[in-house]
Design a protein that fits this description.
Layout lengths: L1 H13 L8 H23 L4 H7 L4 H31 L4 H35 L1
Helix pairs in contact: 2-4, 2-5, 3-4, 4-5
C-alpha cells in the first residue's frame, strides 16, 4: 500500500505537466458545476446536505448514492478515459488502479465535498431573505 501511495503521488504530480494537463482544471470544474446544480435542486426540495445524509441516514443511503452517481457518472467516466489515454500515450502501458484513483480525485471528491455546502448556503440564503 505504501508503495502504491508513493508511486501514485509522484505520478499524479507528473501528470500536471505534459499532454492532457488541461483536464486537471476542466474535470474538477465540471464536477463543481454539477455539484452546484444538484445542491440547488436539493435546497429547493428541502433535502439535507448530501454528504451528511449519506453518512447518517442508512435508510436512504442507497438512493442518495444512486442519485449522486447519476449526477457525476459522465464526468467520472471522462476522467477515467482521459487518464487511460494519458497513460497509454506517455507510459505506453496501463495502470488501471491509478486511473481509477485519478478519476476519483478529479471528479468524485469535488462533487461530494461541494454538493452539501451549496445546499446549505442556498437554504440559509432563502431563510435570511424571507425573515
Amino acid at each position: 500500500m505504501g508503495n502504491f501511495l508513493g508511486t501514485f503521488v509522484s505520478d499524479f504530480l507528473g501528470r500536471l505537466d505534459g499532454p492532457l494537463h488541461f483536464r486537471f482544471f476542466l474535470q474538477p470544474l465540471m464536477a463543481i458545476l454539477l455539484a452546484v446544480r444538484d445542491g440547488r435542486k436539493d435546497a429547493r426540495e428541502g433535502r439535507p446536505a448530501y454528504g451528511w445524509a449519506v453518512c447518517t441516514d442508512p435508510t436512504h443511503r442507497r438512493q442518495l448514492l444512486v442519485d449522486g452517481w447519476k449526477g457525476i457518472s459522465r464526468v467520472f467516466v471522462l476522467a477515467y478515459g482521459l487518464d487511460v489515454i494519458y497513460q497509454i500515450v506517455v507510459w505506453h502501458g496501463l495502470r488501471a488502479a491509478q486511473a481509477l484513483t485519478v478519476a476519483l480525485v478529479l471528479a468524485v471528491i469535488p462533487y461530494v465535498l461541494l454538493r452539501g455546502p451549496v445546499n446549505r448556503l442556498l437554504r440559509l440564503g432563502r431563510k435570511s431573505s424571507t425573515a
